[in-house]
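S.,

Sequence below, as promised.
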Amino acid sequence: MGFIPMLSLVVFITGLFIYFLMTSKGRFLLKSVVTKIKRQEWRFGYSKLNYLRSRFSKTITIAALIMAAVIAGNTVSAQVTPPPLASLKSVSVPQPDNLGDFVKNKPAAIQLGKALFWDMQVGSDGKTSCATCHFHAGADSRSKNQINPGLLQINANGTANPDTIFDVGGLPNYQLKPGDFPFHKLSDPNDAKTVVSDRSDVSSSPGVFNTKFVDVTPGNAQDQVINEPDPVFNVGGINVRRVEPRNTATVINAAFNFRNFWDGRAQNIFNGVNPFGLRDPNAAIAKAATPNQLEFVNISLNNSSLASQAVGPPLSSFESSANGRTFQEIGDKFGSIDKRSLSVGKGKKLPRKLAKKLFPLRPLGKQIVHPQDSVLGQDSRWPKLGLKDKTYEQMIQDAFKPEWWKSNRLIQVDAQGQRTFVKKPDRSLETNEYTLTEYNFSLFFGLAIQLYESTLIANDTPFDRFLEGNTTALTPQQQRGKQIFEGKGLCIGCHVGSELTAASVSSVKKDGRIKRAPFPPNGPEDNGFFNIGVRPVTDDPGLGGNDGLFGNGQGNPLSEVRLAQLGKFQVLLGENPPILTPPLSSSETVFADGAFKAPGLRNVELTAPYFHNGGQATLEQVVDFYNRGGDFGVLPPLNLSPDEKQQLVAFLKGLTDDRVRYEKAPFDHPQLFVPNGHPGGPTSVINDGTGQATDELLEITAVGKNGGSGTPNFLN
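The prediction came back faster than expected:
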């Protein structure tokens, strides 16, 4: 080769080297290619694939085009520019197509939903509401008695193997400290191999004590229960509040999610009864063709995973319910679980009893409602407790169409689950009897809370204002962090679109419910669910679990890809599965085990601790996690400099809506008393005389539409 050709080759290679290493766009492309190669090599070294599934199919194609373009001497700037994002204000909040078949007055339904969400009387103990675990930026900032030892752990063959040993703090009722985090400790946070200690505990939210439901007393906020010894959550044999097995996710902006809960079990279709949508063929409510003529109907409301989610916690024996309660009892208080009230053939709890509890009670009767509350202020009894001139039954009638609540017939349920319409009560001890309003209380509860939560949209962040054209809304440091987020940091692999999550309704509409991973071996996956190596798969299968509808921990897969492999997609989800290329095989490996829903990131500054296990306490720890390539997976190391890490953290703080920080409308709320651990510590608590520990209560003061000073962040 002559001197001139050799010199030309050297110049070309040097220019290419400079392009890839000295420009952010070049580094981004190089990282994508390296990541692809690493993942393919790792595939041949491990029998089970658990890695980040990103959305870089276009990027990989672009990388090849860029190489060709560089070789040809052409410009590539247009090809590597990420597609422009729009402010979240431009995205409509998803709504059910047939909402008008049920709701006649949407503002009235939002009032009902906000009251039910914040009302402490909903819980079996008369203290626990939905808001108990979602009072701070839609999440939970408490830090005492927040540890679950790992009750969702499984063996390698998928059988249950719950961990009951508390690694963090040694025992329940421990006060968390900053030094406890992260739970997976390294001597060098940039090197995943330098493990100092590893703890499989979960930081989450305390719910209720371990009790067995007996009945409700209509008009009494506290259910009749029998205390039962708790083998896990006790201090010296005295029961403490049970802690959920997954970290509490925020409800703010959750309206954009196609499915909800970390494992996606809250279905997009709401069946009016429970979280399982069309998966539960026995989920039915009653409808009055005329006041004298009732019929059982199966209903289906799309874009309603928030309603599906809402009806889960009130019956959870961890979150807010004695074991065995139903929704009808809550309404009867506001009914008794036994075999007479179980869902036909499935053994699942129903919501009718909740209605019997609540209807005689004054809404929010234990809490102050601010006179300037943006939704409930006009009905406030300030400075007295609760709402004036309102009952929950009246609020339901104001919000919902009469065919769902107006009838002079009763629904009678016998010991075998057989249901009969009767003209008047016989008060038989062999049956449970419900009014139409009581029987359908789960429908009202789910839809009302969904409509309220659909108003909790944080879309006025510095990031959103920057996207709207205000170039100074983000600081220069935050703008550099935004470039890292969209490039070198690979964050947009999971946090895509205006909603900053691939699990959104718009993402699923665009790319399908299931798809193939965009890198070899292009395995099938549920859109928006990823295993990023936070914990080993055996700690918590996540999306790899089942819906439990068969009983004894058995059911259909939560993964929609696996439903398609079994030929159950259309029957259980109500539509045909997307056609994949190449076509889905019934025997190929599915990326579901250890996968969890990608959360949106607005207000992430306020919602610590992080990840499904709550194992990271700060955004700096989260960035370190991604920078080293995760803890139990094959994320590519990012090799961020200290300055780049801080830029990325600064950008994440630019995702905070100050209306959320300061609890301004629509994020204002009634007063709330939150159980905040128990007086004492991990070695001693005070017995209240029933075998339960006395509560330490934290008051969250009522706030009107103009907001206040906000509540402290986690561990502040």
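The chain has 19 helices and 19 strands.

Coffee later?
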